[in-house]
Amino acid sequence: MIRASVRWTGLAEFRANLQRLTRDLTEEAAHLIHPAALDMRDEVQARYPVHTGNLRSHVVVRAAKVPRPGVVAFEIASTARHGWLFEHGTKPRKTRKGAYRGIMPAADIFVGVAIRHRARLESGLKAIVERAGFLIQQGGGGATRGGSGVGI
Known about the structure:
- By secondary structure, this protein is an alpha+beta fold.
- The chain has one domain.
- The chain is 45% helix and 14% strand.
- It is built from 4 helices and 6 strands.
- A two-stranded antiparallel ribbon has the order 1-2.
- It starts with 10 loop residues before the first helix and ends in a 7-residue tail after the last strand.
- The model is unreliable at 144-152 (pLDDT under 50).
């Protein structure tokens, strides 16, 4: 019978380093993510029209509920009761008596602003990860550190 064994020395230090890396990257990312969320909110508010101010005053940033520690996320939402109608518009409308009320065209402001801000944020997050020594590969290759081939 052949017996084999593996002894891994330094496992506790390895785990501690990974936990510290996760905490450090999360803290650095939080300093980038929250201001980015506020910037997006500000741009959406600036692009919304002012009639009563309701649309503008109801664009909010709130911390998102995340399923695990080490995740930083914020939600930017338009909570005005008519926010969805403003963004998506309506089809031709008539009253019950048949009077034509027209079409409300879609504003399409929120999604366009979100796309631009997400692209900027991803660029900043990529820089944080690269400063930590990871290589970011395009095309779903994941990120590796020091050429080890371990994805994160």
